[in-house]
Amino acid sequence: MAPSKPLHVKTPLRESIPLSKLAGTKVYLKLDSAQPTGSFKIRGGNAGLAAAYSARRLGIPATIYVPTSTPAFTVERLKDEGSNVCVEGEMLAESTKAAKELVKNNPEWVYVSPYDDPLIWEGHMSLIREIKEQMESKPGALALSVGGGGMLCGVIRGLRETKALLRRCLKVFKGIATTLGVNTVAVETLKLAQEHPVFSVVVTDREAVVAIEKFVDDEKILVEPACGAALTSVYSQVVQRLQAEGKLSPQLDSLVVIVCGGNNITLAELQHLKEQLGIQNDKDHWGQDSTENQVALAVWDVTSQANSGTFRASLQACWKPCAY
Ligand SMILES: Cc1ncc(COP(=O)(O)O)c(C=O)c1O
């Protein structure tokens, strides 16, 4: 029987003192890691675990296609939700192709994209509606990770709804943050990105992994590297760099980091990732990372254009071989 309430919950938005100290501006965390299934994805009912959870709650069957890079513990969790799981292809594109084949041959089935569907963007818009409700004043900037661009689409649409405007954003990626690893963004993301100034930053796998470890220390919350990308806005001083370059306002009222969460992580996996990247447990966190895979995040400047109500952001393209 279908539940009468949404499957996602309203998540906390709270100030982080450790991250504010580092960023030199007030940092608020939008804690979507607190969603059922541990990720913002449940807002749009998309992506493996969110789809599996939704299917169980709605009492409908689901088959989840995942790439071979998916950790065994994630496959296990999908099965625990009662879904069939098919491991197909090295990259999400191949899994997607297999899932679409299934639907083509079984007309009663419906394909749910991980990021490319208006219903998904509508779900992700709720992030901005909540932030608007939870903040007394407009945030100075927003930082979030981008994979296929579903979250970005929802966020841009949400910001448009609140009468704020943005432009330009694009990203292509492969790397450790495997849930960001699609080879194309949604057409709508590209369209919205071209309609508004979108400002982009690319960070390395190492930075994302270091960020998630520091975040455990600072906030006692473990998130996956895909979310770590957004956290590098603070831990890798991305925001300060953009301020120094004159791209972000030097006087940001605040920074909201969307802590999108994610499930592709355990303490053992974090240790494994650190070993893979040669990250020591001492101060060697920021070693050589020039040859590593990279992840992307978007940082949106709200205040510098506050009078005209225009947001600025950008996102750079990056595509390197998968580390798994
Ligand atoms: C934890 C996490 N953050 C960010 C993203 C990127 O979301 P999108 O594909 O909507 O850009 C994903 C995608 O799976 C994810 O799992």
UniProtKB/TrEMBL annotation:
Q: Which cofactor does it need?
A: pyridoxal 5'-phosphate
Catalytic activity of the protein = L-serine = pyruvate + NH4(+)
Q: Where are the transmembrane segments?
A: none
Lyase found in the keyword field: yes
| Keywords from the UniProt entry | Lyase, Pyridoxal phosphate
Return the protein name. L-serine ammonia-lyase
Tryptophan synthase beta chain-like PALP domain ranges (all copies): 45-261
Q: What is its EC number?
A: 4.3.1.17
